[in-house]
Amino acid sequence: MSERADKTSDDDAVFKALASATRRGMLDALKESPLTTGELCARFPDLDRTTVLQHLRVLESAELVTGRKIGRERHLSLAPLPIKRIYDRWIGEYARAAVELLDRLDTE
């Protein structure tokens, strides 16, 4: 598989992870500070632990969340690089193009 195909696959995993409001909420919680798995589960009282862990697996497979074991606890942290990659590749490019278009319309 080419490097470009790898990046496309990585981007697809990030977009899939970000498609869920629950997973975006988990990222918001981890943006504030690292949490243990139990603390993350407590932030989503409407979901059972198994469902939270399923969402967490999607975030980890997209490399948006990292976890490390400390004793009996698993500490989770936000890994912002995939989001930055999406911003650099998609959002930044399209925002720049939109600003240029508006500038051209304004000057014409």
TrEMBL record:
<dbReference type="InterPro" id="IPR001845">
    <property type="entry name" value="HTH_ArsR_DNA-bd_dom"/>
</dbReference>
<dbReference type="GO" id="GO:0003700">
    <property type="term" value="F:DNA-binding transcription factor activity"/>
</dbReference>
<feature type="domain" description="HTH arsR-type">
    <location>
        <begin position="3"/>
        <end position="98"/>
    </location>
</feature>
<dbReference type="InterPro" id="IPR036390">
    <property type="entry name" value="WH_DNA-bd_sf"/>
</dbReference>
<dbReference type="InterPro" id="IPR036388">
    <property type="entry name" value="WH-like_DNA-bd_sf"/>
</dbReference>
<dbReference type="Pfam" id="PF12840">
    <property type="entry name" value="HTH_20"/>
</dbReference>
<protein>
    <submittedName>
        <fullName>ArsR family transcriptional regulator</fullName>
    </submittedName>
</protein>
<dbReference type="InterPro" id="IPR011991">
    <property type="entry name" value="ArsR-like_HTH"/>
</dbReference>
